[in-house]
Batch of 3 targets.
Target 1
Amino acid sequence: MPETRQKAIREHFEKVLLSAQSEKFHYKLYFRDLKNTPNAFALPSGQIIITDKLIEMADNQQEIDSVLLHEIGHVVHRHGLQQLIHGSIITIAITMFAGDATAIEEMVVALPVFLLESHYSRSHESEADEYAFKQMVKLGIDPIYFANMFGKMVEKESSDTVEKYGEFLSTHPSSPRRMQRAREYSAKYFHSNPAQN
């Protein structure tokens, strides 16, 4: 993605989306080209990574905003940290029973990989969704854009490109209920839904 496009999205992220955040986190937005994979994820530190392909799939800035606010929700609710702790506890428990002290060293080496490959539970996804919807309403962004963006991923899931888009879908489980929830917010707080037309 061109540097000018990255700069515009990053400035919007900092000036608009972060302006509505009351939590004391330090966010940093990164762009990556991961072999045409549409994906976005957040690390416990507040680093948010979004791929070029996901941005390419978005029809407008509002759809990108819905994804970024969802990822901010993961940071605010410390989902990444919870996953990290959960994985560490399991590894330590295995080490205690197996008696293999070298497993601790392997765990430390594997932490970055764990963070990148961890899959949030459906409850974490729902919590991040709710956070995103509330922030969108606060910023005057119709949550229908979340439903529209998510709908594209559901459509990809049902097509013959499942293998190509599987990574995104595995970390963001498709669910008509999630899209319906976004529509409920849209109907409640916005009189019209031009993004549906």
Target 2
Amino acid sequence: MNLECSDPSLWKEALSSYSTRIQSLDKPNLISLDHFYCNQLPPILHQRNPNPYITTTELSTLMQWKLTRGKWRPRLLDFVSSLDEVLVKSTSQKAFQSLPDVSKAVSELTVLKGVGPATASAILAAYAPDLAPFMSDEAMEAALGNSKDYSLKQYLLFADKLQTKAKELSSEDDTFTPSDVERALWSVAVGAKINPSKTSKRKRKS
């Protein structure tokens, strides 16, 4: 399934398989990390109104989630775990206050060592899933045809496509967010790796 698919029932099915796909990866701590990222972190951030922020410990756990769900890059975890608490708080406050300007919000966050556009997108997606989807390799591949470019420019293209798809899929009865679209695309990609025979193999674009 890619962004051209316009059948909401297929998207719902893909989204509903997300937790099963997380379990199927059988990676240490991924289930608890995903629970933290999807269910615990968002309300924590929103309870800190009027100036929401993320802490270094929360950012470190978010990074563990990102690296465990995707590619493991231990140096990134070392970088964010040693960031100054005051700096992380003030930087994330500025980023959240920049929304709905996603470009500015990402730029604010990427001043932190170890935080590139992909990690910045994960922080923003936890706070504003209706605006900023996480820049996962699997969803990037499905939306743009490649997942090698982690630039801000590429992320903005990606976010725009997922925002458009979310609006298209939403109705009075169901609301899709760009983050829902990302999780659905990720679920389909992971499912295809687990059961390649059940998925028609699309030619990968470089």
Target 3
Amino acid sequence: MAFESEERPSQSITKFESMLKTDDVYFFDAEDFEEIIHHYLNHGKVALAKKAIKIGLQQHPASIELKLLDVEVLVFENNLEVAERLLDELQMLDSNNEEIYIQRANIYSKKDNHEAAVALLQEALQWTSNSFDIHSLLGMEYLFMDDFKLAKENFMKCVSFDEQDYSSLYNVVYCFEFLEDYDGAIHYLNDYLDRNPYCEVAWHQLGKQYYTKKMYPEALAAFDFAVIADDRFIGAYFEKGKVLEKMGKYEEAIENYETTLKLEDPTSHAYLRIGRCYEKKGNDEMAKYHYYKTVHEDPLLDKGWLVITEFYFKKGNYKRALYYINKALNIDGDNPSYWKKCGKIHTALKDYDNADFSYKHTIDLGNYELDTWLSWAAVAVLDHRLDDALHILTQGQEFYPECVEIIYRKAGIHLVKGDRVNGRIALMKALKQDLEGFEQFNKEFPEFSTQDWVLELVSASKKTSRS
């Protein structure tokens, strides 16, 4: 496997590159060729690596290590059959070489046979005293298999071998998060920080775990330590801003977001966060200024356009909101979030035809959220298309078959249509499923909720639930 890349080319690499520029042929030891090939592989210069392998094998045709590097390149380029034939030959010469098992595992992994890859990597562990790279590969294979527990265990071993292996540390935390074991992640990171108290990466990850658990003072302290360890750590300032925002400390949050803008090129996400802080402070002009900066910095950021649209929507300026959501749609007409917001705006403007079109497009683009179906049906009711409303709710029931809110809504619409039979059936089903949901029915259809026969159904349902 490739070594870590060097900061500057060694004498062997300089000599090799000089040879390539002339017609001269220089002799190198096999170890020199290995160093040269690793250098090119680590820098993504595969063509030069292949040239070094070819010349190296001409000078050292019996070198197993050079042949294994040839296999590595073949696997990288998906020449798997050729690589397997070469591995068969090498295994006859050196059956205890762990790199042979590793490369076979890479081939199986490329073929999506991760169980076989794991078995070969386990075999490789039997033939090496340096198992760091193998545990890293095992961790990745277990991730492919969605076995986050075993993946976590292997990445933990990598961290125990090298506590500066931040890639493995990130993977350990990722596994904890996927398993929703945030307490386990906190314990692990605190234990790690006892040994590495100045590791900004670990402090940053610890803060994120506290943030997930809504332990905001602890999260803030962790991000503070991350900043102390590295005062140019942009991620820590940004996350610290989010915590301060949650704590209602908007001025301090703004200061941290602005720090990220000073340390690196401005980002749309920072402008968006600053705008939200100003809006929460009631400073609408500064909020608008930063929202506009958001979409100027990244016109494709859907959150930016949506937050401007929502800003005007909340102010009741629906025409202005419509103007900005249309600008967003001109940039990305296939974004269901834009169409959904468009539906809400048209509804507020009582433009039910365009509201209906917008919600239909939202569904067509794959947004099947419950409130999308309910809002679309509500538009049909407002437009006096009761049969369409029932059809929409029936479609929604395919995605939410147990949703009592849909059943109550259908009951009310049946009754508005004068269809007391189906209205009664639907209402009885809804009351049986969730008696408390009747309060919402009462708000939406007050003209029916006080009728004697409805009150009798409610009373009977209460008696049944008590018994």
